[in-house]
Amino acid sequence: MNRMSFIIGLLAVTLVSASALANTAQQVCDQKKNAVGDLENKLKDNENKIKDIDNKIDALEKQIRALTTEKAIKNGEAGKLKGDIAKAKREAAAACANVERCDEFKKQLAEYQKEFNELRGEMGKLRGQIGAKVAEVAVLEKKVDGYEANYAKLGCDALVAGETPQPTIDQCNKIFSDWNADQKAINDLNAELNKLKGDVAQLRGKGNALLNRIRALKGNIARYCAGTPVLKDAEKLEKEDIGADAADKDLKDNIDKLKKVKKVRILRPKIGKVKKDNKKDVTRDEKKDEAKKVERTPIKKEPVKPIPVRKPIVKQPVQK
């Protein structure tokens, strides 16, 4: 009985164990199937993600192609812009260089203007000196004209002792003396005017040299600074004059006046003597004048008369 109980108990345990084992296998099977299903689901999810990625890649590839095309366009534009920038830089450099040139030209023109003003100032001083000499010429011209007029009015070239009043003789001598004394003043004034003429010529030379430099500078300004105020300033300075022409005219006019003044000759008055027949003595100069008149008087030649031919005298024989 005990054995049977043991066997029955063993069988019971075996049956329970078998049943338990059968349940465990099912569970394992189900678990495996579930695991496969999970893996398949993961695969589907992965494949879906791959499809999404492929779609994204396709989209990205399209975008890349579009971007590549756009990049090529932009590269072309960039190349053109680089060329434009290089050109703009050159133009900017040229424009800036012109600005710098114009600034230098402006400074140089200011120096020329200063030099011109100095020359014009020196010429102004010379013209002041010339004006003073012009006044002296006018005084001398008036004096010499007076000498000449009074000399003729008083008859200083025909004085006669005993007939011409002594005051008249004295006045004639004074006229000659004053005229003779003024000759040195005339010569000195003529020398001073000629010196001033040389000074004016020297300043004119400096002015002409400066004018050549101004014209050369104006050419450069017209080339690089056209339409700027500095060009107008250069053109204005080119037309200005230091006053040499006016000074030369004053000098020439007054040197010519002095030449005329120098040509006036006042002779020393000579007093002739009265002869017994109330005729004045003929002076040595008058004798010379008479001699010259005689020399200049043509001698009338009488026509040569033919000499008559004499007939030979024939002697008659003496009759015995």
Walkthrough of the structure:
The protein is mainly alpha-helical and 320 residues long. It has helices at residues 2-154, 166-224, 229-239, 244-263, 284-296, and strands at residues 159-160, 271-272. The protein has a two-stranded parallel ribbon. Helix 1 (2-154) runs parallel beside helix 3 and helix 1 runs parallel beside helix 4 (244-263). It starts with a helix and ends in a 24-residue tail after the last helix. The model is unreliable at 276-288 and 290-320 (pLDDT under 50).
Name some characteristics of this structure.
rod-shaped, 2 strands, disordered C terminus, mainly alpha, two-stranded parallel ribbon, 320 residues
Chain-wise SSE layout:
Blueprint: H1 2-154, E1 159-160, H2 166-224, H3 229-239, H4 244-263, E2 271-272, H5 284-296
Parallel strand pairs: 1-2
Helix pairs in contact: 1-2, 1-3, 1-4, 2-3, 2-4
* Mean pLDDT level: 82
Q: Which geometry do the CA atoms define? A: rod-shaped
Give the terminus-to-terminus CA distance. 279 Å
Query: Which percent band covers the strand fraction?
Result: under 5%
Q: Reading side by side through the largest sheet, how are the strands ordered?
A: 1-2
What is the string of helix and strand elements? HEHHHEH
Largest sheet: 2 strands, parallel
Specify the structural class: mainly alpha
Give the low-pLDDT segments.
276-288, 290-320
**Number of H- or I-type helical stretches:** 5
Rg over CA atoms: 69 Å
DSSP helix fraction:
over 70%
Number of strands: 2
Summarize the structure.
By secondary structure, the chain is mainly α.
